[in-house]
Amino acid sequence: MTILIEQPQLGFEEEEKKIPVDEKELGLDGGFVVPQTNSFGQTFRDYDAGGERQPGVENFYRINHISQTYDFVKRMREEYAKLNRVEMSIWECCELLNNVVDESDPDLDEPQIEHLLQTAEAIRKDYPNEDWLHLTGLIHDLGKVLLLPSFGELPQWAVVGDTFPVGCAFDESIVHHKYFKENPDYNNPAFNTKYGVYSEGCGLNNVMMSWGHDDYMYLVAKENKTTLPSAALFIIRYHSFYALHRSEAYKHLMNEEDIENLKWLQIFNKYDLYSKSKVRIDVEKVKPYYLSLIEKYFPAKLKW
Ligand SMILES: O[C@H]1[C@H](O)[C@@H](O)[C@H](O)[C@@H](O)[C@H]1O
Ligand SMILES: [Fe+2]
Ligand SMILES: [Fe+2]
Question: Which residue has the least CA distance to atom 8 on ligand 1?
Fold first, then answer.
């Protein structure tokens, strides 16, 4: 029952693009200061904080956990693999996110374009030479356009929030785990064991993740033949997989390449999570720089 999705084979050129992960090797001082609290005065990712956003966020996860089943994900992957909805550039997509607000996020109620630029600019300060990582910051959440009418207007529960594997047991570390009890897969013996339909070390590429903006943007980038390195595609695809990159669950499904790429994801996560603030970036000022990166790593128009 395992669904195999093709991963670009690492040829000679791609091999050379592999990037050193050691922060010391990169000569960085990690200037970014992790703030103690979010813009609402609470600790980041506190899902039981009881603040103004809590009831909405909890309700979001209730519906998300009940509805993300193995069959649902399979259907979504097939449907969106067609990439037959829209043709546009990466920057046009960034602008579309001007009007998107994420209901799953306890730390941010700003339009998403702010979050993209805040993430990218924070990375750029600490890792000035890793231009691929700046661009990864800019585009990692573009898949949230799935909320908009021309992309199928999917409900929030099918677009945002933390992701997790389907087809095997839901790990206890997943936010608001209790709501999985009402997911039909929860009582299905094919899907509710440690390995479920997978096997030890099978590689995350062979694992079906709950459907949302991560997997969609990965698909868009890959199918439109981005020249970004494999670590960038991994970051885009798994940045919402907190059970893995924060709680170290599901490690038994990883292969060697996943282990390498996870190091970059963990660096990235610091900027994705803690750069969320009310301090706005001047879009027009930074736009030329990001346009030059887009031109370097993507075709002018992409299929979405
Ligand atoms: O609420 C947030 C948001 O949807 C992010 O884009 C996602 O990456 C996180 O995992 C999630 O917790
Ligand atoms: Fe995200
Ligand atoms: Fe993000």
Answer: 240
Give the Cα separation of 206 and 41 in Å (integer). Answer: 40
Q: Assess whether the C-beta atom of 141 lies below 6 angstroms from ligand 1.
A: yes
Quickly tell me which residue has 């997997």 as its tokens.
215
CA of 115 to the centre of ligand 3 (A): 7
**CA–CA separation, 193 vs 201, rounded Å?**
16
Phi-psi group of 301: left, alpha or beta (phi > 0 → left; psi -120 to 50 → alpha; rest → beta) = beta
ipTM of the complex: 0.96
- Each domain of the chain, given as residue ranges in start order, spans 46-303
185 is in an annotated binding site: no
- What is the CB neighbour count within 10 angstroms for residue 271? 25
Q: Tell me: the pLDDT tens digits for 97-115?
A: 988 889 999 988 888 888 9
148 Cα distance to chain centroid: 18
Q: Are 212 and 229 in contact (CB under 8 A)?
A: no
Q: How much is the pTM?
A: 0.90
Residues ≥6 apart with Cβ < 8 Å to 12: none
Determine contact, residues 183/65, Cβ cutoff 8 Å.
Answer: yes
Q: Dig out the tokens for 64 from the structure.
A: 């998300």
